[in-house]
């Protein structure tokens, strides 16, 4: 008898934007869903709407650390976001060390030059939104690779 297929939504938390990805244990791959820009209560509503729409088995939240593994200010904030996800949805939230997820997303998807200061503000914002969603893919795929 095979294990049941579980589906997940993965989140790459940021103060301004939250990248979101979807994936499942059958394929162990993720696809970008969206990047949320909402703040406050609107952010909660957007997350709850995504959970209702995608109906994941559980959620995965990226938590950043320094390269040496030490926590920093955003570690605490990302953990707080993971707790908010639990509170808002009632689902299990798995926390994943997301060191280098943005770098991996940029490299894997050929987006290394998004820091170009000559790029227009609109183009740069669009690229950053794409990177956030792709970083969520990296985080979610990393979690699923660790499953037995």
The major beta sheet can be summarized as: 5 strands, mixed
Instruction: Tell me the domain tally.
Output: 1
Strand order of the largest sheet: 3-2-1-4-5
Total beta strands: 5
Task: Tell me the helix content.
Answer: 40-55%
How far the N terminus sits from the C terminus, by CA atoms, comes to: 15 Å
Strand content: 15-25%
CATH architecture: 2-Layer Sandwich
Going by CATH, the homologous superfamily would be: YqgF/RNase H-like domain
For the record, the CATH class is Alpha Beta
Which structural class should the secondary elements be placed in?
A: alpha/beta
What's the shape? Answer: globular
Low-confidence stretches: none
Mean pLDDT: 88
**Whole-number radius of gyration?**
15 Å
CATH topology group: Nucleotidyltransferase, domain 5
- The arrangement of helices and strands along the chain is EEEHEHEHH
Oligomeric organization of the protein chains: single chain
The helix tally amounts to 4
